[in-house]
Design a protein that fits this description.
The chain is α+β, with helices and mostly antiparallel strands and 407 residues long. It has eleven helices and 15 strands.
């Protein structure tokens, strides 16, 4: 597998576009389109929130029932959530407008929205935006960048990833883009993730691979403990790499799945690192667990602890907060066996041995915790299972951003 400098337009046959349609104030980019020159097998995962936005319902119906899909239309600025039958009808109108412009079936058009909950979309502006996007669709790197920028809300940077691999002699590519900065919590989040690939694979195996991968990627990140109404991850596979069809779990499937895992892990970590107001990516590794479930529960508990996140912001090696978060997680372990380390690009330091603080340097710990990416690694010495979760520090700016979000 080779990581390449690209995004959503990296695989063969995929085009993209992004522009300012007028949904947001100030001529900000707010609409994107992704289009495949050939029909795609499609997989998707969606929010676990009982309150689901209209686009989530539309896309889930298509993923479950459409013969294929070929395009995605996404707007930022308004979430089209809690908008009733009118909001759902706007999904259909958007898809119909795109279908006519692209000359594809209406049920081949996926839609996505992100932004403020409870507002109706300005559908006339949205439809005009679709008509403007189609003529500028391109497979260029620049088009992919514009699309990635156009789906951002409070994100401070665009988020992309792409890789190449070889399957039975054929070069296959996976590209992706996502958005997410706030309302981010395990079991999906206010995040939209779009992944394209030119692999030939059955719909069933594509869905199985994505469903498994989501558990170790997007479901292992948290910014603020809020699970969104809109989160969606879609994977479109158009088969244009012309590799032998992956219809069973052979070596090609495992190689493809490994690459898909890499892309989605990268995108998930980019979301966590760009958490609203964040200054650092905070990674938690749990090793030595008896079961995977135990490791996941412990890692998530630490990554969602506001006290721990605040300590990371202050570059403070306040290890008691980590052990406390592990203790109330619901997972059973022996605190007298825990070894804890902090590490970053500045080095690695042991903080606890067998549940008791070692004689470490607070100055060195602060230096290690002052990097842009910091890790807390806990070995609970009960077994061989492990898990990794990602979050960010909790800063003053998080409150400022969310206090002023609608204004």
């Amino acid at each position: 597998m080779k990581v390449i400098e690209n995004g959503i337009t990296a695989p063969k046959g995929f085009l993209a576009a992004g522009l300012a349609a007028g949904i947001k104030k100030g001529n900000k980019k707010d609409m994107a389109m992704v289009y495949s020159q050939k029909p795609c097998q499609t997989a998707g995962t969606f929010t676990t929130n009982v309150v689901k936005a209209a686009p989530v319902k539309w896309d889930k119906h298509l993923v479950d029932n459409a013969a294929y899909t070929q395009a995605i239309v996404c707007n930022s600025g308004i979430a089209n959530a809690c908008t009733g039958t009118e909001g759902y009808s706007y999904c259909q109108e958007t898809a119909k407008t795109a279908a006519e412009a692209l000359q594809i079936p209406e049920e081949a058009v996926l839609v996505a929205s992100t932004g403020v909950i409870g507002q109706q979309l300005p559908i006339d502006i949205l439809k005009e935006g679709v008509k403007k996007l189609v003529p500028v669709l391109s497979d260029s790197r620049e088009a992919g960048i514009l699309a990635a920028q156009s789906i951002m809300t409070t994100d401070t940077v665009r988020k992309e990833c792409a890789v190449e691999m070889e399957l039975s002699g054929a070069k296959v590519t996976i590209g992706g883009m996502c958005k997410g900065s706030g309302m981010i919590h395990p079991n999906m989040c206010t995040m939209l993730g779009f992944v394209t690939t030119d692999v030939q694979i059955t719909k069933e195996l594509l869905q199985e691979a994505l469903s498994e991968i989501v558990q170790d990627t997007y479901n292992m990140i948290s910014v603020d403990g809020d699970t969104s109404t809109n989160d969606t991850v879609l994977v479109l596979a158009n088969g244009m790499a012309e590799n032998p069809l992956i219809s069973e779990k052979n070596q090609d499937y495992e190689t493809f799945k490994e690459a898909l895992l890499y892309v989605n892990t990268s995108l998930a970590k980019q979301i966590a690192a760009d958490g609203e107001g964040a200054t650092a990516l905070f990674e938690v590794k749990i090793t030595g667990a008896e079961t995977k479930e135990q490791a996941v529960t412990l890692a998530k508990s630490v990554i969602t602890s506001n006290l721990t996140k605040a300590a990371v912001f202050g570059h403070d090696a306040n290890w008691g907060r980590i052990l406390c978060a592990m203790g109330y997680s619901g997972a059973q372990f022996d605190p007298d066996k825990v070894d804890l380390f902090f590490e970053s690009a500045a080095g690695k330091i042991q903080i606890l041995k067998d549940g008791v603080a070692v004689d470490y340097s607070e100055e060195e710990a602060t230096r290690i915790l002052s990097e842009k990416q910091v890790t807390a690694a806990a070995d609970i010495k009960l077994g061989k299972e492990s898990a990794v979760a990602w979050g960010c520090d909790l800063t003053y700016d998080y409150v400022k951003i969310n206090a002023d979000y609608r204004s």
